[in-house]
Amino acid sequence: MSTTPTTPTTQLNLPRFGYGCWQLGSKGADDYWGLEFTDELADTLIPSAISAGITYFDTAEGYNNGDSERQLSKTLAKLSPEDRANVIIGTKLLPNNAADVRSAVEGMLERLQVSCLDLLMIHWPITKEGMAHFAGNHKTADGGHDYSTSDMEAVGEVPSTQTCFRDLMILQKEGKIKHVGVSNFGVNQLKEAMATGCSIAVNQVCYNMIFRACEHDVLPFCCEHNIRVLCYSVLMQGILTGRYATLDDIPEYRRRTRHFDAVKNPKSRHGTMIFFVCFVLFCSLFLFLFEF
Q1: What is the average per-residue pLDDT within 187-210?
Q2: Which residues are within 8 A (CB) of 185 and not within 5 positions of it... i.e. 6 or more apart?
Q3: Number of folded domains in the chain?
Q4: 230 in the same domain as 200
């Protein structure tokens, strides 16, 4: 297959701030966000965001089993033609669906009620670990997907990254995708995607004052190769707003990352950090004693 890079016909211009749509389609108090995100709520907040200059809306087929895309499209359909023309939608393909990109994209087009996706990102690397985030039939009490699960045993065959991006380029040439991007990709995974000849417009990564891992190599690589960086969880899902006074005040789902002790949080997808903390303290003590 040719490795000549595909070049989108238009440049991707995004506003400084975007609207994260993970909450859209939430089912109720027992769902991830602890609320029912009604159509009335969407009809209030989304136009308010647009009036404030926020015209990029970030969703995914994995957000509430496609209901985020559906609710977003219903609200956008009520906008004036002028406001709707300024909206840019970014959505994401589950790595679990990378073997049948065309079918997944057709589903997104139908749910979003558009003929072309402004930006389509691969939600996580096409690996067993990336697919485990969405594998298994784990539900909340309200029927939503339980995002605290990561089921390696439920992962089947891992699709080919090369074939996935080849199919994305075909759909791009057909006019069904304007820009192709990725999410949560490291340097090696970015190189693998770029080697297919696909032009990668953005890499969406978690980045905030607590979670800064991308500074080491991902951000420099993206800058070097003119890949724009979209940052999500910039306030660590509300933890950095000052809203929560103690650890116990933080909802269980918001403290499921590796920064929190898994022993105290049944929703954590990561092992306990006790060994790591002890190891760091031991190394620090050793270096201190070595200096003297």
Answers
A1: 96
A2: 122, 125, 193, 203, 205, 218
A3: 2
A4: yes
How do 27-28 and 88-93 pair as beta strands? unpaired
- Is residue 52 situated within a structural domain? yes
pLDDT at 281 over 50: no
Q: How far apart, in whole angstroms, are the C-alpha atoms of residue 20 and residue 232? A: 8
The span from the CA of 253 to the CA of 69, in Å, is 22
Are residues 143 and 261 both part of a single domain?
A: no
Q: Which residue has the tokens 């009036």?
A: 51
pLDDT of 230 > 70? The answer is: yes
Query: Are residues 280 and 140 located together in one domain of the fold?
Result: no
pLDDT at residue 255 tops 70: yes
Q: What are the φ and ψ backbone dihedral angles of 202, each rounded to 5 degrees?
A: -145, 160
Say if 11 falls within a structural domain. Answer: no
Give residue 276's pLDDT band: very low, low, confident or very high (50, 70, 90). very low
CATH number at residue 145: 3.20.20.100
Distances (CA, A) of 52 to 13, 16, 33, 72: 17, 12, 24, 17
203: number of Cβ within 10 Å: 27
Which pLDDT value is given to residue 94? 97
pTM equals: 0.85
> Is 91 found in the same domain as 36?
yes
